[in-house]
Design a protein that fits this description.
The complex is a heterodimer of chains A (324) and B (324). Chain A has 13 helices and 14 strands. Chain A is an alpha/beta fold and 324 residues long. Chain A folds into two domains: 180 residues, Thiamin diphosphate (ThDP)-binding fold, Pyr/PP domains (Rossmann fold, 3-Layer(aba) Sandwich); 128 residues, Rossmann fold (3-Layer(aba) Sandwich). In chain A, the strands form three sheets. Chain A has a seven-stranded mixed β-sheet, with helices on both faces. In chain A, helix 10 packs across helix 11. The longest helix of chain A has 15 residues. The radius of gyration of chain A is 19 Å and the shape is globular. The termini of chain A are far apart. Chain B is an alpha/beta fold and 324 residues long. Chain B is 45% helix and 11% strand. Chain B contains twelve helices and eight strands. In chain B, the strands form two sheets. Chain B has a six-stranded parallel β-sheet, sandwiched between helices. A two-stranded antiparallel sheet of chain B has the order 5-6. In chain B, helix 1 packs across helix 2, helix 1 crosses helix 12 and helix 5 runs parallel beside helix 6. Classes of the chains: A alpha/beta (324), B alpha/beta (324). At the A-B interface, helix 3, helix 5 and helix 6 of A face helix 5 and helix 6 of B.
Amino acid sequence: MPELRYFEAVQRALAEEMARDERVFILGEDVGLVGGTFRATEGLMAEFGARRVRDTPIAEAAIIGVAIGAAMTGLRPVAELMTLNFGIVAMDQIINHASKARYMFGGQVNLPLVIRAAAGGGTQKGAQHSHSIESWFVNSPGIRVVIPSTPYDLKGLLKTAIRCEDPVLFIEHEMLYNTKGEVPDEEYLLPFGVADVKRPGRDVTIVAWSKMLHEALKAADQLAGEGIEAEVIDPRTLDPFDLDTVLESVLRTRRAVVVEEGWRKVGVGAEIASQVHEALFYELEAPVQRVAAADVPTPYASNLEKLALPDAQRIVDAVLKITL
Amino acid sequence: MAIAAADQITMYRKMVLIRRFEEGVAEAYADGFIGGFTHLYIGQEAVATGSISALNHDDYVIGTYRVHAHALCRDTAPRALMAELYGRATGVCKGKGGSMHFFDASRYMLGGYGIVGGNLPIGVGAALSMHMQQQDRVVMNFFGDGASNQGVFHEALNMAKLWNLGVIFVCENNFYGIGTDVRTSSAFNEIHKKAQGYGIPGHVVNGMDVLAVREKCEELVKFSRQGGGPVLLEARCYRYQGHSMTDAGKYRSVAEAELWKKRDPIPRLAKSMLEAGIVDQAKLDQIQHEVNETVEDAMRFAEASPRPAPEALYGDVLVGGPSA
């Protein structure tokens, strides 16, 4: 099967959907002439023109607001926020407008709107450019949260996102853009709310997404050397969340570790752990463990940043804590 | 440019309807039928009436949290609006939106929004959508004096002009952002001139004179529709009540309020129509009587309507449903 890089999977998905549906258009900072800070929209302006690949001012709230207005009136915008850090500037439009409009207007309007944003740390970008804040959006009803870890998942999920009638926050990871993976030439779509078991195992269930999925797989390799077979599950979408696949796995392994790059306090991991506890408390051999970022702003110094963010070793330690 | 007699009578009826509707709302609020924030439009009737009447039926209107009048001007049934305020299933948004969030897809009314300035980029997005779909429908984008100090106001003006979109920004300048005088809050308080910073023509009109508002808006709508790009109109007006039903408005002097009430738009139009022989007093009395009936009927309808069923709680959040 041919291989694509993660950023090429974005390009491919966007190009296919734009060719398929004239209503789809892209707007954002540097998406056109530059082709995107992470090359994710490279070539699209040449292919589809400046009308459908629109460079915008640096005005994140208005980028999202404009996308909302366009989505309400017949188009299917894909707004790029360059990075999710800048999404914080647009929180009012994302949470208070995009996520609530359909409900507060009694279901009269759909918002087929995708917000793409790069997230994550690990490249010494410091406190304001290293966010993994998916929990903020998962906490809010009215918006889907999609967070792929591989080029294959990315392409299939982005196409689904663009065809979705609801607002979707599509979170890509800055450190994954150059990673490669098999992506078939034939068209495919991946459904929301269906987790993927990336590695089967019998002894412990590890739930991880985005870049942490890869750390979890590394941890599972290491654990296998110690005779512990970890099952690694990538939920791929956090809203909707495929709890059934996780519960089915934990029912077999009776142990679970949830990994996220975001902060530990009130994180997505806390929610997943809580749901597992509520459903399977008496089946568990040990409390569900959380591996997450230290509750500090991400530091610049490389040694401190490494300490702040979770990695394979931290996951191994968490597994050993409940399997030994 | 003379405004046809029939149009003047229609506008008179509309202003009387808005006034009586809002009086009915105040009564129902006092009687406990309406809760939450309820922002009345009494005193400002000429602005929504004159401006919206200059639009075609399929142009878009988008507004703020003081939005009852705009929905009435779009000819949404008073019954559906009053029922929304009463929190009933028969409301225009099924009782889920309330006073600040009137939305009527069938009337191209893109809603009322509760965050100051929040609607402005959304309106620009609707205009971008019309531009991209090669339609000459314009968007009338309402805001208050207070919103002109918000970041998204400037972002929205910039993008509208950058892309030369058909947006008529209508500032309802009632001189107070809740309790703070525009002179205290805005470094430069001739709001129409703020448009000049973006190369947008800015105009000012007496917002207590419905004929002046209508004439000015006909000119501006024509300009925008013919590709002239965005325009901004500042309509100077006065709300007689406090900011909302819970605001006694003690920050304003009695003398100031009395001065503005002498400029009341309804008797003003009545007088000019009587003088021009367009109507006689009997006709005006008949209009008042019919409007009173309409509002009483709306209130009876609202009170008799069922509340939303408990099952409605989870509906309308997303098209896909919460777990799809």
